[in-house]
Amino acid sequence: MNQKFELTPGYTINRIINGCWQLSEGHSLTCKLDFDDVMRAFHGLVERGFTTFDCADIYTGAEEFIGEFVKQLKNGSSISPDDIQIHTKYVPDLDILQDVDFNYTEKIIDRSLRRLNRDTLDLVQFHWWDYDVPGCVETAGHLCRLQEKGKIRNIGVTNFDTKHLAELVDAGIPVVSIQTQYSVFDRRPEKALLPYCKEKHIPLLCYGTLSGGLLAERWIGAASANPETRSQVKYLQVLEDSMGWEGYQELLLILQRIAKHHDASIAHVASKYILSQSGVGAAIIGIRNSKHVDSNTRIFDFDLDAKEMEMIRNHLAKHNMLEGEPFELERTVGSKYRNIMKMNLNE
Fold it and tell me: What is the residue range of 324's domain?
């Protein structure tokens, strides 16, 4: 069963969140998704207590798919739409940042409400592509106005660095969470973001914990990897600049040894390691099919002891940490990280 925690008074979410980036158009590079199977996975997940979903306005088709799932819950399911939590994002396109105003913001939020078949959005996670373009704090303020109108329950952020998160907090924006990339490959949050968020009681909702499926037994002994999804393109870059292929293979063997001790998998151990970090609220695990629905329930059947945590930490300490703050490389013009980003998917 999934563990839960209270994100805000009266609002409880899972510590394992069902991620939906994998459902977006163009995410898979090698095959088409079986959306009937994905729908079966959604029903199977909520029946097992995995009731929190993460999507975005820019995940093309994902909000609509979840909206269809909500319709099915309304029509005879034992699970009510009120029993699930849906987190989306507000990501204004890079090319129009300078023109974003309240009316535009409300239009996009209203569109998400329609797509998701909701009267109120449980959590809207705000992203701003370019800090050099003015308007970030003001746009977050637009979300506050929409919260007052009852269209948004909670406001979070995604992919903010520490400085700009602090600017929002200091401006009085009621940020309840931050979604950020955090894994054994990408430990940038540990530099400044995680300590700041712990001080301000803002939990991290972590994506990339399984690095697009690279943290799995199938890769042990592999000489290389051909990316199967956009996720893997990104995480292979992270792997290359952190521990390299040799360090990655050594890590897989360490995680496998720990996993065997707990009758678990490498993915379970990698998830548990991040969830065990103080200040981490949840990990987001992508859903592409129904194969791993039962597997996710195993994550909370065991705990990593101090020796196992130290084994992982000692290996990570031998290798580089990515440069800069979370998402800093992804914002840097000309970087390989930015070059694979799609920054104009909202309109």
Answer: 11-339
